Amino acid sequence: MKNLFFICLIGILSLFCVNVCFADNPNLQDDLIITIKPTKPTGGTRPRSIGDSDVVAYYSAGAIFFTFNVDLDSVYIEIMNLTNGDTWSSMQNDPNTSVVSISDEPGRYVINIYTECNDYVGRFELN
What are phi and psi of 99, to 5 degrees? Predict the structure, then answer.
C-alpha cells in the first residue's frame, strides 16, 4: 500500500513539474514548424514525415532554422514578409544546418530556397 501511495505521489509531482517547465519556457511556445515543399517534384515516393523531407524548417524567437537532408554545396534562402514587404536573404556555403534571423513582426511570410538540386517553397504566418 505504501509503495502504491509513493508511486502515485511521484506521478502527480512529475506531471506538475512537466506542466510548469513547459508553461514557463517561452521558446517552446514560440516554435513553429514550417512545411517546405519542392517546387519541381522529382517523382518517387512522397515524404511520410517531416524527417523524410529534403528540407526541415522551424521558426523560433525571431529566426528560422533550416536542416537539409541532402548533400548540397550551397543554398540561397530568401524570406519575404508579404504583409509589409520586408525581405531577408542568405547565401549558405555549408548548408547542412542554416539559421536566418528575421523579425518577429506579425504577418504572412513566404520562403524560397534555391539549390543545385531543386527549388523549394514554404509559407507560414506569425500572429
Answer: -130, 130
